[in-house]
Amino acid sequence: MGVYEIVAIILSLLVLLGIKLMSSPKTAVYGNQISALSMLSAIILVLVYNEIISMPLLWVAILIGGIIGYIIAKKVNMIQMPQMVALLNGLGGGTSAIVALVEIFERYENMIYFERITSQLALIVGGITLSGSLIAAAKLDRKIPQKPVVLKGHSILLNISLIVLCVLAIFGTLNNYSMIDIISISALFISILFGILFSIRVGGADMPITISLLNSCSGLAGAICGFTIGDPLLVSVGAIVGASGIILTQIMCKAMNRSLMDVLKGSHIADKTFTGEIIAVSVERDTQEEKKSVHDILQEAKKVIIVPGYGMALAQAQYLVKQLTDKLESEGKDVKFAIHPVAGRMPGHMNVLLAEVDIPYEKLWDMDNINPEFEETDLTIVIGACDVVNPAASYAEGTPIYGMPVLDVDKSKYVIVCNMDTKPGYSGVENPLYNMNNVTMLLGNAAETLKKLAE
Amino acid sequence: MSPILLILVFIIATFLGYKVISEVPTLLHTPLMSGTNAISGVTLLGALVSTAFAASNKSKTLGFIAIVLATINLVGGFAVTDRMLKMFKKKEAVNK
User: Fold this and answer.
1) Looking at the predicted structure, is the pLDDT value of residue A236 above 90?
2) Residue B24 half-sphere exposure, CB side, CA atoms within 13 Å?
3) Integer Cα distance of A62 and B71 in angstroms
């Protein structure tokens, strides 16, 4: 092992340490800075080690990229985070694909088989990540419809492009002629096509899974690219990112009650329509009394839980949520937030939006910890969430959400739902919560309805 | 480095990464994602070397683009993660 390899291992461990520090909000800032510094050292190491530090071309490119990256990072707002992450994923994938292409153009004849096959793979995985992420970003940014777009013979097209990619990769490995340029460019082109076909079929609410998966792919592409150029740092760091994406993908799939294959195949969960009737099994409370007014409920409540969903992000209502929280707390009430793992469009989306408006993270509770508390809660306020609070998930066998872990909001004494309408959520399953007699519906834009509550 | 060693590095890094990342709470999953995302801009290292040693103009041009994209990924990712994490941190200070 040479100096470079040893330093590469140290830097990889520093990156790992950085991620480890991200396990707590207290140390996470330093964790990120350590990762960033290790990356900076890695860049300088590579430039010095290869004696290319004085090449103006490289510095111009770094400068342009750095300025663009910095500006985007400063300008983006927290609601746009999912599309920002998707976009950056795409760039990472794109870089790996281009590097693989350059390597093939430059030194294909001298490559061993291992480098040939990995360069083709980096090309393919990178290309898919690039186009798949850009489509996902466009969907999240509502530049193209969030609905799954299914073309005629969509699956066949996907399968054909996959087979062609395999054939091209094999040719690209075995072929020794000048044809290699055409083969590689075709492979890149078809993998870009594959990414588009794959991503365009995924619906908006499946995006948390898709982004996590593409995150993993961008790391994987980097690692494979590292195989081609024989750089252990690329391999190790790429593998770490790949593992991170896979973990998030697993968590998201579990929380949505979806198998990864279902999402990949683009089978919309509402396809399996449930024909039976979902009855509101309401706990008969307060049947004697008149239905209380929202005002009274708010006044009397001592323990309040707020459940935010994608509707809050859409209505940009997090500022009003903060106002409402302040008001309730000034009246001496205990306010907590219940965050479902898939609320929003990416893992942890709600936490970031609430952190943006200065809601302390100690108040943000995840599903497993908050669920036992609903029973002792006087009032739960649901803001733009449907499937993640649907009590039918526990008993409506045969529905797409059956077995999906949900927040047990129906157990609290009163529930106020600030949703746009009473239409079913992404799953297409009616929400019996809306008909329970301890539930008050405030329909309309969450920004408007919350304003009333906060007054 | 030989292919076998590289594959070994890949396996060990995946395993260690998996262990460390499983401990990150859901609270921080968005910053985790944008942070690891930034790290995946590590391909910049490959881009720098490939571009520097590329002989043809075609490769140099492609490499130039790759460096720009990777730097956007790195700088943008780290900066935005920093912004997010400081929002979480800020809350703590207010609380005390």
Assistant:
1) yes
2) 32
3) 6
Does B52 lie at the interface with A, CB-CB under 8 angstroms?
yes
Strand partners, A126: none
In 3D, which of A226, A266, A233 has the Cα closest to residue A115?
A226
Assess A99–B contact: CB distance below 8 Å, yes or no. yes
Which phi and psi angles does A344 have, rounded to 5°?
Answer: 95, -160
Domain boundaries, chain A: 76-265, 294-454
Q: Determine whether the interchain pair A103/B36 forms a contact, defined as Cβ–Cβ distance below 8 Å.
A: no
**Predicted confidence (pLDDT) per residue in A167-190, tens digit:** 888 888 887 667 888 889 999 999
- B33 vs A60, A112, A215: nearest CB: A215
The model's pTM is 0.85
Tell me the two tokens of residue A244. Answer: 């991170």
DSSP assignments along A34-57, one per residue: HHHHHHHHHHHHHHHHTT-TT-HH
Question: What is the residue type of A13?
Answer: L
Q: Give the sign of the dihedral formed by CA A89, CA A75, CA B81, CA A44.
A: positive
Choices 3.40.50.1820, 3.40.50.1220, 3.30.530.20, 3.60.20.10: CATH for A294-454:
3.40.50.1220
Neighboring chain A residues of B34 at a CB cutoff of 8 Å: 81, 84-85, 88
Measured in angstroms, the CA of B47 and the nearest CA of chain A are apart by 6
Report the pLDDT value the prediction gives residue A177, as an integer from 0 to 100.
67
Neighbours of A152 (CB within 10 A): 6
pLDDT digits (tens, 9 = 90+) for A56-67: 899 999 999 999
Of A35, A60, A103, nearest to B35 by CB-CB distance is A35
**3-state SS, one letter per residue, for A212-238:** HHHHHHHHHHHHHHHHHHCCHHHHHHH
Please report the ipTM that was assigned to this predicted complex. Answer: 0.91
**The token pair that represents A260 in the structure block:** 């990864």
Residue labelled with tokens 């083709």: A120
Nearest CB to A348; choose among B30, B40, B92: B30
3-state secondary structure (DSSP) of residue A431: coil
B89 close contact with A: CB closer than 8 A: yes
